[in-house]
């Protein structure tokens, strides 16, 4: 019998009050795999990540992690299982220094390869600024700190929500260049992106969401410009 | 020299006000909760100390060993069982619920202990003092209280900025949803903050009760002193809170010196003066 995927999302629905944002979304992430989730604004990409991370109320059996149902666990218990989210807009803690932001990411003391020293080795710009308030960082450095903060929990699955948002292309390339160092540790990645080219280059599987439904799913190399355009805009 | 004496007494009283304020400020800082029952918890701690002293026959300062953990436990249970349910985008529910608690505590104490005013007896230390000059003497007890206040504020400052628990408090205050992503349970963090606040309240309550008479109805006035010290010092700055307490204490001492009826009025005027000139307080928190 083949091993169950690391993450399996089955017919997940999500609501903001009366508004339904996701309609029966299904998705699978294998161990060590990079999966890209693309789609237009409001397609439900961030909602999907928030549902997996436990920030949205959910159905128990809609999210399976390592075979165990976690769909109804609150965020603080999901991260303890090994799923970390890099939230959209970075959301660093403004009253904490750069180093404190990283330390609080690791406060559960989950064992694993990532330590303060290794984060600073991966992002040397942070090491030089470790005692500055997180608000004193540039956008790219803040994104590195947000990634580092999530890595400090030694996740088996890292969810990245629009890590390129508002950053210069050269900074985006710089950040994406560090992702292989993360997957090399056996961590699986789910990348939500607006920058389709960047996402397709980094991922092996791609899901395209459209108005809360999966409009396309398949290997990234099979996704042509035409299929993506059709799935993206529904034309 | 008489004036120097007045100011020194005011400064020493200010330490007590700063402790009233520190507990309030901590709770507001971590979870945006204004605890209207804060003053009544001060009085509750004084009565708990009274019971402990009468039961065990110990000194008021020794009774802290029992009263502080007890109040901390009450704080934790209260936050988890009741106050966490009132927190949300709306500031009104926690205000109403803590107002209700204030009424309940006052009337509960009235039932149990009557309206008679009480005092904790600390023995010889109460009247001991050092004569510094012909007209200037410092009571050992007020000085000890001031030293405890400085130690408590310094301890809170260190806890907030040097420990993992302090990081958790600041992170949860900044962004509760993202704090959950770090594995922090908001309900538990808030309950720990309330436990800490009521622990500080316990120290303040016992020190107050050694120094002055208390009865079940004096809580709300202590709440006002705490509020005023927080606002004068600047919200979210613990050392500022100490300065705020001292400003209030000195203003009251000067008012009382001019006319015994002006003590409270002078404190309120100092508060209004600061509010008019520097609404953000004397030492607002520096951000970023």
Structural key phrases:
heterodimer, A: 235 residues, alpha/beta, six-stranded mixed sheet, four-stranded antiparallel sheet, 34% helix, globular, B: 288 residues, mainly alpha, ABC transporter involved in vitamin B12 uptake, BtuC, two-stranded antiparallel sheet, 11 helices, 2 strands, 3% strand
Show the helix and strand layout.
The complex is a heterodimer of chains A (235) and B (288).
Chain A (H helix, E strand, L loop, with lengths): L6 E10 L2 E11 L4 E6 L5 H9 L9 E3 L2 E2 L5 H7 L1 E4 L11 H8 L10 H7 L1 H5 L10 H13 L5 E5 L7 H15 L4 E6 L2 H7 L2 E6 L2 E7 L5 H9 L2
Parallel strand pairs in A: 3-8, 3-9, 6-7, 7-8
Antiparallel strand pairs in A: 1-2, 1-4, 4-5, 9-10
Helix pairs in contact in A: 3-6, 6-7
Chain B lengths: L1 H30 L6 H19 L3 H22 L10 H22 L15 E5 L2 E4 H23 L1 H11 L1 H6 L4 H26 L7 H15 L4 H21 L4 H15 L11
Antiparallel strand pairs in B: 1-2
Protein model, in words:
Chain A is an alpha/beta fold and 235 residues long. Helix content of chain A is 34%, strand content 26%. Chain A contains nine helices and ten strands. Chain A has helices spanning 45-53, 75-81, 98-105, 116-122, 124-128, 139-151, 169-183, 196-202, 225-233, and strands spanning 7-16, 19-29, 34-39, 63-65, 68-69, 83-86, 157-161, 188-193, 205-210, 213-219. Chain A has a six-stranded mixed β-sheet, with helices on both faces. A four-stranded antiparallel β-sheet of chain A has the order 2-1-4-5, covered by helices on one side. In chain A, α3 runs parallel beside α6 and α6 runs parallel beside α7 (169-183). Chain A is globular, with a radius of gyration of 17 Å. Chain A starts with 6 loop residues before the first strand and ends with a helix. With 288 residues, chain B is mainly alpha-helical. Chain B has one domain (2-277): ABC transporter involved in vitamin B12 uptake, BtuC (Orthogonal Bundle). Helices cover 73% and strands 3% of the residues of chain B. Chain B is built from eleven helices and two strands, in the order ααααββααααααα. Chain B has a two-stranded antiparallel sheet with strand order 1-2. In chain B, a hairpin with a 2-residue loop joins β1 (129-133) and β2. In chain B, α1 crosses α9 (219-233). The termini of chain B are far apart. Chain A binds chain B through residues 53-55, 74-76, 79-80, 84-85, 87, 91, 93-96, 100, 103-105, 107-108, 133, 135-136, 149-150, 153, and chain B through 164, 167-168, 170-171, 173-175, 177-185, 287-288.
């Amino acid at each position: 019998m083949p091993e169950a995927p690391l993450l399996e999302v089955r017919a997940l629905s999500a609501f903001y009050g009366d508004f339904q944002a996701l309609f029966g979304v299904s998705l699978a992430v294998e161990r060590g795999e990079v999966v890209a989730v693309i789609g237009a604004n409001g397609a439900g990409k961030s909602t999907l990540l928030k549902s997996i991370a436990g920030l949205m109320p959910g159905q128990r059996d809609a999210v399976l992690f390592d075979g165990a149902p976690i769909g109804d666990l609150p965020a603080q218990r999901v991260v303890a299982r090994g799923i970390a989210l890099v939230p959209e807009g970075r959301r660093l803690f403004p009253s904490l220094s750069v180093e404190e932001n990283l330390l609080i990411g690791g406060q559960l003391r989950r064992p694993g390869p990532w330590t303060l020293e290794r984060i600073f080795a991966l992002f040397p710009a942070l090491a030089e600024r470790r005692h500055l308030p997180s608000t004193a960082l540039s956008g790219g450095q803040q994104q590195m700190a947000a990634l580092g903060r999530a890595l400090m929990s030694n996740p088996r699955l890292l969810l990245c929500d629009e890590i390129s948002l508002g950053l210069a292309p050269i900074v985006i390339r710089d950040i994406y260049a560090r992702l292989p160092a993360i997957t090399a540790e056996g961590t699986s990645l789910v990348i939500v992106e607006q920058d389709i080219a960047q996402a397709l280059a980094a991922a092996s599987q791609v899901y395209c969401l459209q108005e809360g439904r999966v409009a396309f799913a398949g290997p990234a190399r099979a996704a042509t410009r035409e299929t993506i355009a059709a799935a993206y805009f529904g034309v | 020299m008489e004036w120097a004496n007045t100011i020194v007494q005011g400064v020493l009283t200010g330490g007590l006000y700063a402790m009233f304020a520190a507990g309030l400020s901590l709770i507001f800082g971590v979870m945006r909760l204004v605890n209207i029952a804060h003053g009544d918890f001060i009085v509750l701690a004084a009565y708990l100390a009274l019971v402990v002293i009468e039961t065990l026959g110990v000194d008021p300062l020794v009774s802290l060993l029992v009263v502080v953990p007890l109040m901390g436990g009450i704080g934790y249970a209260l936050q988890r069982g009741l106050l966490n349910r009132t927190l949300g985008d709306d500031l009104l529910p926690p205000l109403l619920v803590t107002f209700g608690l204030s009424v309940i505590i006052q009337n509960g104490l009235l039932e149990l202990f009557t309206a008679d005013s009480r005092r904790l007896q600390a023995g010889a230390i109460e009247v001991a003092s050092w004569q510094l000059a012909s007209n200037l003497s410092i009571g050992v007890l007020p000085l000890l209280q001031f030293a405890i206040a400085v130690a408590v504020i310094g301890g809170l400052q260190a806890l907030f900025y040097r420990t993992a628990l302090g990081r958790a408090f600041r992170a949860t205050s900044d962004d509760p949803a993202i704090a959950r992503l770090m594995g922090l349970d908001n309900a538990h963090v808030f309950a720990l903050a309330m436990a800490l606040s009521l622990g500080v309240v316990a120290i303040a309550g016992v020190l107050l009760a050694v120094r002055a008479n208390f009865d079940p109805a004096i809580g709300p006035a202590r709440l006002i002193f705490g509020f005023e010290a927080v606002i004068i010092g600047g919200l979210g700055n613990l050392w500022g809170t100490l300065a705020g307490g001292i400003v209030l204490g000195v203003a009251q001492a000067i008012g009382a010196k001019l006319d015994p009826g002006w003590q409270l009025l002078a404190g309120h005027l100092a508060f209004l003066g600061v509010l008019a000139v520097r609404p953000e307080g004397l030492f607002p928190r520096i951000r970023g």
